[in-house]
DNA sequence: TTGAAAGCGCTAACAC
DNA sequence: GTGTTAGCGCTTTCAA
């Protein structure tokens, strides 16, 4: 029991006394460690059950592990991240590890990827002795990530960079963006605009998923001979970012016939702006997203989107993390997953 | 540094040696405790900065606090919960506390409110020495909650029950449900169905938000002389729950003219099912939700919903928690917030 | 005001 | 196979 009153919490000493064995024995049984006779194990197990003993993770953490895995999410509102979390917790469900989620302490309206806030959360997780961490699209630089990964097993999701210190799971974002552009040009679109997330740091630009999607968009446009039509608005991967970006685009004298939003959550804002402008989707303008979140599939939405199998990505990350926690020095793994385009009802031939 | 190699982590001993003071002094400075001269404070502060010292939360937790607050969410997919989390983190932003979020390890498709999984998470938080916890719509029984709250400061959000051990912040769910029914009957609806979350435990039924909304719906229907039209389908507060519930309702020989979903996330599933059935909203059928999440306001959705100010609720909870952590023995507070109906475009007069 | 020393609950060496 | 003994990095009495 912490500061509260109540009865003192059962400790390993109580269990040892109750079972008339040493605390070492209890500790070993708890950890399924080597060197306990079946008889001893049984007595200890019984005592544990009888007293309702649960070890304190903090105390364990002082010497061994805390059995806690930290997951850093850039933004809890983006419906794509729960998919990843599901994959992680699903993989860890039968293990002794507990997942704790941390997000930047940002209010709504602020852009995702607040680097300072993220730094605090990562530090906080390290300070709390997490046995391992999954960092989803972290904004930190390579150097900082390597630093963190040097101290605790880390798997990074979404950053396009290899590191010897941590494992990486990433979607082929350039390919995903190309899928969208190919699809839209195939329908006859030429003026295809893209809304992405502003990337303040030039250094890490090449490795952030948003930046790679934008690059994929540019390259694909060029490949279709549409270099002159390239049109990127940078706001943020939030609903509001999509709303503001679309407002901006719709005010153009020659407005785009299609908007490719860098994330489904962005597309949501786009749809709102489009509706407010009195335009109909896809009759007047086509809209596509990225992530294929559950909201994209909603009846009244039916958003064309790029599927990147968040659950699978999360599960892969968890698997790699477990391996790395077991063998800290192992060589790092780099997994790339392939995106798929899911065509729904927000994309069609452009207005005549 | 945990298991990893790398340089040993800076400890309080290093700082003390570097500043040529005792570890006690460093500890006091870290905690802004009473009894340090300005000169001493300055030297210690300098040493801390120079060495980049950050205390290990686990070690602090052995004697004092961990500076960590646990937030239990029943479901990370429901877009209402980020509002609450924003309120909590917003209030705690400038404090020394860090927020860690835990959710049941459920895969998609399972209903929310998995009691066993929730139990594990709450235990895990207690075991990890959380200084305080905010439990959002926990499924646990009164007894269990009091037990937990006896050991660590707790604020419960969403349960309709007073407890001497923990504070409570709750929306007037019965009133919210009545607002919807009043609105729909005012439009001329009589066959108003409700989709709620199955409540397996009779004991706690009266106190769960879903159950109270259902009761509010029933009472309001009766008040309008529509007792015979009461029609409740129990699935879960998930998108899939809404989808299945609506499928079921739409198969009725005499189908309802309006569906009141117990949560926005449920309404999302309803909208999908309605669209699949080839029906138009609100022309053929009206739909209303609860929570007024950001998705309700989306252009293509425009869902009529009950606003319960999640951000405010979260902020209130955080405020109460901070007070309780400062004074464990204080009398408990019970806050009820008043819901508001936000009418959008999914509700209209019933078909002739 | 300052610091020495005793733990917090657990795990890891090391004896037996 | 079992128990004894040191700590892990902090906070907290309690003397000085």
Automatic annotation (TrEMBL), chains A, B:
<dbReference type="GO" id="GO:0003677">
    <property type="term" value="F:DNA binding"/>
</dbReference>
<protein>
    <submittedName>
        <fullName>LacI family DNA-binding transcriptional regulator</fullName>
    </submittedName>
</protein>
<feature type="domain" description="HTH lacI-type">
    <location>
        <begin position="10"/>
        <end position="64"/>
    </location>
</feature>
<keyword id="KW-0805">Transcription regulation</keyword>
<dbReference type="InterPro" id="IPR000843">
    <property type="entry name" value="HTH_LacI"/>
</dbReference>
<keyword id="KW-0804">Transcription</keyword>
<dbReference type="InterPro" id="IPR010982">
    <property type="entry name" value="Lambda_DNA-bd_dom_sf"/>
</dbReference>
<dbReference type="Pfam" id="PF13377">
    <property type="entry name" value="Peripla_BP_3"/>
</dbReference>
<dbReference type="InterPro" id="IPR028082">
    <property type="entry name" value="Peripla_BP_I"/>
</dbReference>
<keyword id="KW-0238">DNA-binding</keyword>
<dbReference type="InterPro" id="IPR046335">
    <property type="entry name" value="LacI/GalR-like_sensor"/>
</dbReference>
<dbReference type="Pfam" id="PF00356">
    <property type="entry name" value="LacI"/>
</dbReference>
């Amino acid at each position: 029991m912490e500061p509260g009153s109540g009865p003192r919490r059962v400790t390993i000493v109580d269990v040892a006394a109750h079972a008339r064995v040493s605390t070492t024995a209890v500790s070993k049984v708890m950890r399924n460690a080597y060197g306990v006779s079946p008889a001893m194990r049984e007595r200890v197990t019984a005592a544990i059950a009888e007293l309702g003993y649960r070890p304190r993770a903090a105390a364990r953490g002082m010497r061994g592990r805390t059995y806690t895995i930290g997951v850093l999410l850039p933004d809890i509102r983006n419906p794509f991240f729960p998919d990843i979390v599901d994959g992680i917790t699903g993989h860890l469900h039968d293990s002794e590890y507990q997942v704790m989620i941390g997000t930047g302490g940002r209010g709504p309206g602020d852009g995702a990827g607040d680097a300072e806030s993220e730094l605090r959360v990562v530090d906080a997780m390290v300070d709390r002795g997490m046995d391992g961490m999954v960092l989803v699209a972290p904004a930190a630089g390579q150097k900082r990530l390597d630093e963190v990964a040097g101290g605790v097993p880390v798997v990074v999701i979404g950053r396009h960079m290899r590191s010897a210190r941590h494992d990486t799971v990433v979607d082929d974002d350039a390919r995903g963006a190309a899928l969208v552009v190919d699809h839209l040009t195939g329908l006859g679109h030429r003026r295809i605009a893209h809304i992405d997330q502003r990337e303040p740091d030039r250094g890490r630009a090449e490795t952030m998923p948003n930046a790679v999607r934008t690059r994929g968009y540019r390259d694909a446009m060029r490949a279709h001979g549409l270099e002159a039509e390239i049109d990127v608005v940078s706001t943020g991967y939030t609903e509001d970012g999509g709303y503001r970006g679309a407002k901006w685009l719709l005010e153009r004298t020659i407005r785009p016939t299609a908007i490719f939003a860098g994330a489904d959550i962005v597309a949501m804002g786009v749809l709102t702006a489009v509706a407010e402008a009195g335009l109909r989707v896809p009759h007047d303008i086509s809209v596509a997203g990225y992530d294929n979140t559950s909201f994209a599939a909603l009846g009244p939405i039916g958003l064309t989107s790029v599927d990147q199998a968040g659950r699978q990505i999360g599960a892969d990350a968890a698997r790699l993390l477990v391996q790395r926690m077991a063998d800290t020095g192992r060589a790092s793994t780099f997994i790339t997953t392939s995106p798929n385009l899911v065509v729904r009802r927000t994309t069609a031939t452009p207005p005549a």
